Amino acid sequence: MLANLTGDEKAIRSLILDHPDAALLWSGGSYPEPVAAALGKQYREVQITRVTDEPERVVLQSPVAPVPMEVRRVNGAWKLDATPIIEFRKKAAAQP
């Protein structure tokens, strides 16, 4: 969620599983600095709950994400499945 505030493609790519529509995560640019700072503070303090906890897969729930988010271990690194965020952005973009 923190990387998403910056709109930094390199940072976001390093944290997510490959996705054909991943560019939607950085194509909108970054949040204005005061907004990013306020959201970043909230994100750092939010409680995250493990809904599913497996050796190579974890599902996390938090108040900052409308749906549980899956994280998988790939080559020793944890990567977020950004599909729910990408699908949300697609729907938002399709609204008139």
Can you describe what's shown?
This protein has 96 residues and is α+β, with helices and mostly antiparallel strands. It has one domain. 39% of the residues lie in helices and 21% in strands. It has four helices and four strands; from the N terminus they run αααββββα. Strand 2 (57-61) and strand 3 form a beta hairpin. The longest helix is centred in the middle third of the chain and has 13 residues, at 33-45. It is globular and about 40 Å long.
What is the topological layout?
Blueprint: H1 2-6, H2 9-15, H3 33-45, E1 49-53, E2 57-61, E3 69-74, E4 77-80, H4 83-94
Q: Main β-sheet: number of strands, strand sense, barrel status?
A: 4 strands, antiparallel
Morphology: globular
- The quaternary state of the protein chains shown equals single chain
In total, how many beta strands?
4
Q: Bin the strand percentage.
A: 15-25%
Radius of gyration: 14 Å
Overall average residue pLDDT: 93
Question: Which strands sit side by side, in order, in the main sheet?
Answer: 1-2-3-4
Pick out the low-confidence regions. Answer: none
Structural class from helices and strands? Answer: alpha+beta
Order of helices and strands: HHHEEEEH
Number of helices: 4
Helix content: 25-40%
Distance between the termini: 26 Å
How many domains, in number, for the residues?
A: 1
